[in-house]
Amino acid sequence: MLIAAPNLCLDITIAIPRLVPGSVSRATGTDTSAGGKGVNVARAARTLGGRPVVAGFLPRADGSRFTRLLDAEGLALRKVDVDGVLRIASILVEDDRRVTVINGRGADVDSTRWHRFTSLIVDAVAGAGVLVCSGSLPPGAPVDGYAQLVEIGHRGDVPVVVDAAPAALAAALGAQPDLVSPNLSEAEGLLFGRVDEQVDEVGEDIPLRAVRAAVGLHAAGAVRAVVTAGSAGAALCTTTGAWWLAARPVDLVNPIGAGDCFAAAAALALVAGAKDIDVVRRGMAAASASCEQPTAGRLDPARAAELFEKITAQTMDPTVLAG
Ligand SMILES: Nc1ncnc2c1ncn2[C@@H]1O[C@H](COP(=O)(O)OP(=O)(O)OP(=O)(O)O)[C@@H](O)[C@H]1O
Ligand SMILES: [Mg+2]
Question: What top-level class would CATH report for the domain 178-323?
Answer without folding.
Answer: alpha beta
